[in-house]
Amino acid sequence: GPSGCGKTTLLSLLLRLADPDAGTISCGGVDLRDVDPAAWRRQIAWVPQRPTIFAGTIRENVLLADPEASGWRVIAATREAGLEELLRALPDGLETRVGEGGRRLSAGQAQRLGLARAFLLDPPLLLLDEPTAHLDPDSEAGVVAAIERLAAGRTALIVAHREAAVHGADRVVELREGRI
After folding, report:
1. pTM for the full predicted model
2. Which of 68, 89, 136, 165 is least enclosed, having the fewest CB within 10 Å?
3. Tell me: the pLDDT tens digits for 139-152?
């Protein structure tokens, strides 16, 4: 849907960052207001348009999804997200330090880092907000391929303006003026 139609509001409601003014949002017949917000969010990987990246190593940034994850799981997550080539090119690989906000990373690399977190978390539900925004065609193709791997076998809600991000979706809906 067009800007201002309610896509971000819908994601906020699904994440329980806000509750609806009227009506209900339910999952499996259960009103989300009756579910503990923290417990609900543990079942969701949310990859925003611009993933938050903290000053630290790439490994530390991926581990935000699951601080207890083993080294091999971090490596597998970065591989699935399409970061393998970048990590091979960096002198310190996963131990490469990135600046606050992802300095040293392109928009596509930052988006794939956000996807690596989602792979590491391995949740039943994915919420992706404009995952290909601000990407050149090559980066977009890599991110779309990673999304297809990530979405396989789980429920994914992908908010997108660009068709490439929802290619292969089982169902595409359009929001207009707050309505599907």
Report:
1. 0.88
2. 68
3. 888 888 888 889 99
DSSP assigned state of 171: -
CB 134 within 8 A of CB 52: no
The model's pLDDT over 102-142, given as tens digits with 9 standing for 90+, comes to: 778 888 899 999 999 999 999 999 999 988 888 888 888 88
Cβ neighbour number for residue 95 with a 10 Å cutoff: 12
Closest alpha carbon to 175 in 151, 154, 158: 158
Burial code (b: 16+ CB inside 10 Å, e: under 16) for 22-52 equals eeeeeeeeeebeebeeeebbeebbbbbbbbe
Q: Is 25 left (phi over 0), alpha (psi -120 to 50) or beta?
A: beta
